[in-house]
Amino acid sequence: MNQNQSLWYLENIDVTNIFCPNKFGAHEHSLTHKNYSKGEYIFLPGELADKIFFITEGRVKIGLYSDTGKEITKTVLSKGEVFGELPLAGENNRRNFAVAMEKTMTCVLSVDQMRSLMRDHGPLSIFFLKVMGSRMLEMEKRLESLVFKGSRTRVVEFLKDLGMQKGQRVGYEWVVRKFFTHQEIANLTATSRQTVTTVLNELEEKKILTYDRRRLLIRDIDALEREMKPT
After folding, report:
1. Measured CA distances, 144 to 97, 141, 147, 221 (Å)
2. Number of C-alpha atoms within 13 angstroms, CB side, residue 215?
3. Residue 102: half-sphere exposure toward Cβ, Cα within 13 Å
């Protein structure tokens, strides 16, 4: 179980059933399901922030554009995660964009629907506090890494965190399915594609990990963590 999933299991609430009840044959009239093809934008900066989304299949990239038009990736979310939740904190217009990285299915709730659910399911308020808090801490950690750590260390740290948070443990190894492209990792770590490729190749030569377009296999996560320390 990854870190994000544990947020709602700690509160012992079935978030999937609450957000998307028509998957289980209940209240089919009340919620909207929407599908997005790969590369399709779900929302853009400046749009009205009046919906909250729950991913039932696929992956979504959240980011923004700089004044020069450069894309900055904030995070990548997958099945079972919520995004677009900032209207609950007072956001009126979107500051970020959300785009489907592959064929993606979502349950879409209005802000009023979400507030009604929160009234009916008290632990949901704690759930959203933890979601927002964990994302704020994640952004602070990335900022600290950008200021205090070199590009190689940022890439290695990203790979280690990816394995621990999104991976499945198999014996002493960690498997991450649907691995990122080198450019996606570069966007997430504020490095270059060339740096990502170099670091991955070095780690593979050391037999710390193996990878292809479909998955990342971390063979020795302790050795990977040691690669983050200055020599």
Report:
1. 23, 5, 5, 22
2. 10
3. 14
Number of Cβ within 10 Å of residue 9's Cβ equals 11
Q: What pLDDT sits at residue 31? A: 65
Give pLDDT, residue 14: 63
Mean pLDDT by 10 residues, the chain (231 residues): 41 65 48 90 95 93 88 89 90 94 94 87 81 84 86 95 91 92 92 96 96 93 88 54
Question: What's the pLDDT score for residue 22?
Answer: 57
The residue with tokens 């959300």 is: 98
The pLDDT of residue 28 is: 43
pTM for this prediction: 0.78
